[in-house]
Write a structure and sequence with these properties.
The complex is a heterodimer of chains A (about 300) and B (about 350). Chain A has about 300 residues and is mainly α. Chain A contains twelve helices and two strands, in the order αββααααααααααα. Helices cover about 70% and strands about 0% of the residues of chain A. The longest helix of chain B has 18 residues. The chains are: A mainly alpha (about 300), B alpha+beta (about 350).
Chain lengths: ~300, ~350
């Protein structure tokens, strides 16, 4: 033994055994299997299905073609429904933003002891199932519903207003249920803005509106971006609400997809419509994220 | 010339009386510190001057004009916040330009002013950085530059050094004080750090419980505190309860204490029999192994000594009187723990305060 160095225990240093994957990675295996079997495979099946040709008496005819896509993209009816769907998502997101921003501001800044209760109110639309919630809107909005009866009985309207079976009814119901998805990201973004920034802006000579426009709004953009994307995507792909409150007037892509798949037994066409909707949504969200991302340079 | 006047200011938050009847006049080019423990109302006072809070009663006047009800953006103030409050989505230049844009100063003039002020705070070349790319000290100077570039009439500083590490904090004290003097701007400075207030201020306002406890130049606050609480808050002090035995004419008094009769001073004659407290600063007390021949002293035993570099602090106990004294000496005069020693102090170093145990 040389002096000064502590003797090490006898065995040579053990070489760590290289594993193919660290053991804890295997913990995600069940989730991956679930996603693979119930999401990736069906999606793959939908993609394959969308290139099949329709047939009579069978789900699809043999062989592949792009005929379904050609029909969708050249038919003004389908394009119109697609445009309507995108528009519905856009309006819903915009109305949610306008209604949700003040609520989010209050929630982020309040020190009230009723804060928890306010969160319950904000989340309340999600506490009721979609069918029951939509029935609730039917009771309120129908021609003979609570609102129309009240208006007519009070003499405020001569006859019942059309509040449902049109875009208005669908938008109202969608805004109601998706508002929490706008408010929560906004609360997170606004809550992370230092309240002193407003004071600093005011001390430098900016009025309340200028402080909001130049300081507050840009800093809350990440929340605006997240909230609008969530609501837009959710509204575009909503099914139950447009079906129950839109009647024959409002046709959206999800309604059309279900019609083709289940009512008309047109699996290839339904699959193609579903994919057109998905791709449109992805492209629009990507473009939007790029545009807003450019505005947010320097925010984070 | 008086610049800023606060008159009989009152502010309540529910049951909390944040500001009580506060009167203050700040002169042109003067730096006045509001010093006090947290919750004493110093920040609320500053926020009232800034216009972020409005007093319940009283008046705030600037250059003779009443600004009590003006919103902050019309007060022409520059403010530096404890956490700097720089706009994170703007570069240093944009942060500085913000206030100039609000004042509709044309681009060329604004650019020149920004360059000049960045030079003053030694941040030339940092203009295109974002705040998060700067160190704490640099952010602090950007905050200072942003407040000064608009050439405000009044500079408000709310604990601007509290978030800096100790070495930088000391450096920035001198930096800010020097800058304030060079610009010649009237400034109100909030801090809970008495050393900071001492170094930087023309005058210090000591605040307790929403009211002014004492107002004066740093040396006066330190050497002639008006209450025991102030003596303890501003620097360290050995407090000794006593009773006036006799006024020896003018400021001199003989005071009876547990250590025996002691000579001490007050700014006016006090009647015999008045209960008082004496304050003796640790560095003013003299610790010697042998009792001095020329003046009264009392025997103590050194219990602990702490080497601080430039000085040694001794904790000494006068066993029969039950009094503990802290004495600071030069390292060359330090005594070891366990040593029996004598403590004495000159009359001018024993300050009499109206009794407040």
């Amino acid at each position: 033994m040389t002096a000064g160095v502590l003797p090490l225990t006898g065995s040579a240093p053990r070489k760590p055994r290289r594993r193919w994957l660290p053991a804890h990675y295997w913990l995600v295996a069940p989730a991956l299997v679930l996603i693979g079997v119930f999401l990736v495979l069906p999606y793959f099946n939908i993609i394959v299905m969308s290139f099949r040709a329709p047939a009579v008496g069978a789900p699809y005819a043999p062989g592949f073609s792009g005929g379904n896509y050609l029909r969708i993209l050249s038919d003004s009816y389908f394009l119109g429904v697609l445009a309507d769907t995108v528009f519905l998502g856009f309006v819903t997101a915009l109305v949610c933003l306008l209604l949700g921003y003040p609520v989010a501001y209050h929630l982020a800044r309040t020190r009230s002891r009723f804060r928890g209760l306010l969160y319950v109110f904000v989340l309340s639309p999600l506490l009721v199932g979609v069918v029951i919630r939509t029935f609730g809107w039917l009771i309120l909005l129908s021609g003979n519903g609570v609102i129309n009866r009240a208006l007519v009985d009070l003499g405020l309207a001569e006859r019942a207003l059309t509040l449902m079976n049109n875009r208005f009814g669908v938008t109202v119901a969608l805004v109601h249920v998706f508002l929490p998805f706008m408010i929560l990201p906004l609360v997170a973004a606004i809550g992370s803005i230092d309240p002193n920034l407003e004071a600093a802006g005011r001390s430098l000579g900016a009025g309340r509106w200028t402080v909001f426009r130049r300081i507050f709004l840009p800093l809350s953009l990440p929340g605006i971006q997240a909230g609008t994307i969530l609501v837009f995507v959710l509204a575009m792909s909503a099914y139950v609400t447009p079906v129950m409150l839109g009647g024959a007037q409002v046709k959206t892509m999800p309604v059309l997809v279900v019609q083709n798949l289940i009512d008309n037994f047109q699996w290839p066409m339904g699959a193609a419509l579903a994919l057109v909707l998905a791709v449109t949504g992805i492209v629009l969200v990507w473009v939007y994220a790029r545009l807003t991302g450019a505005l947010m340079r320097g925010v984070q | 010339m008086t610049k800023l006047v606060l008159e009989r200011l009152q502010k309540r938050f529910g049951a909390v009386h944040a500001i009580r009847d506060l009167d203050l006049a700040v002169g042109e080019g003067e730096l006045v510190s509001l010093l006090g423990p947290s919750g004493c109302g110093k920040t609320t006072t500053l926020r009232c001057v800034a216009g972020f809070e409005f007093p319940d009663e009283g008046r705030i006047a600037f250059d003779g004009a009443d600004i009590t009800d003006l919103p902050p953006e019309r007060r022409d103030i520059g403010m530096v916040f404890q956490n700097y409050a720089l706009f994170p989505h703007m570069t240093v230049r944009q942060n500085l330009a913000f206030g100039l844009e609000m004042r509709r100063i044309d681009r060329a003039a604004a650019a020149a002013r920004i360059e000049r002020v960045l030079g003053m705070v030694q941040l030339g070349g940092m203009a295109e950085r974002y705040p998060r790319q700067l160190s704490g000290g640099q952010q602090q100077r950007v905050a200072l530059a942003r407040a000064l570039v608009i050439e405000p009439k009044l500079l408000l500083l709310d604990e601007p050094l509290a978030n800096l590490d100790a070495a930088l904090r000391e450096e920035m004290r001198f930096f800010i004080r020097d800058l304030q003097r060079r610009v010649g701007i009237t400034a109100l400075y909030v801090t809970h750090d008495q050393a900071e207030a001492m170094v930087m201020s023309d005058r210090i306002v000591v605040m307790f419980d929403g009211a002014i406890a004492q107002l004066g130049p740093p040396a006066e606050i330190y050497q002639r505190p008006s209450t025991a609480r102030i003596a303890k808050f501003v620097g360290r002090a050995n407090l000794l309860p006593g009773t006036i035995e006799a006024s020896l004419g003018g400021a001199s008094h003989r005071v009876a204490t547990v250590l025996g009769p002691v000579a001490a001073r007050h700014d006016k004659a006090l009647a015999a029999g008045t209960k008082v407290t004496l304050a003796v600063r640790p560095e003013a007390a003299v610790l010697t192994a042998a009792a001095p021949a020329d003046r009264p002293s009392f025997r103590v035993r050194v219990e602990q000594s702490y080497f601080l570099g430039g000085a040694v602090d001794h904790v000494a106990r006068a066993a029969d009187a039950g009094i503990v004294f802290v004495v600071s000496t030069a390292p060359s005069n330090a005594l070891a723990p366990g040593t029996d020693a004598s403590i004495s102090f000159a009359e001018r170093d024993a300050w009499i305060m109206a009794d407040e145990p």
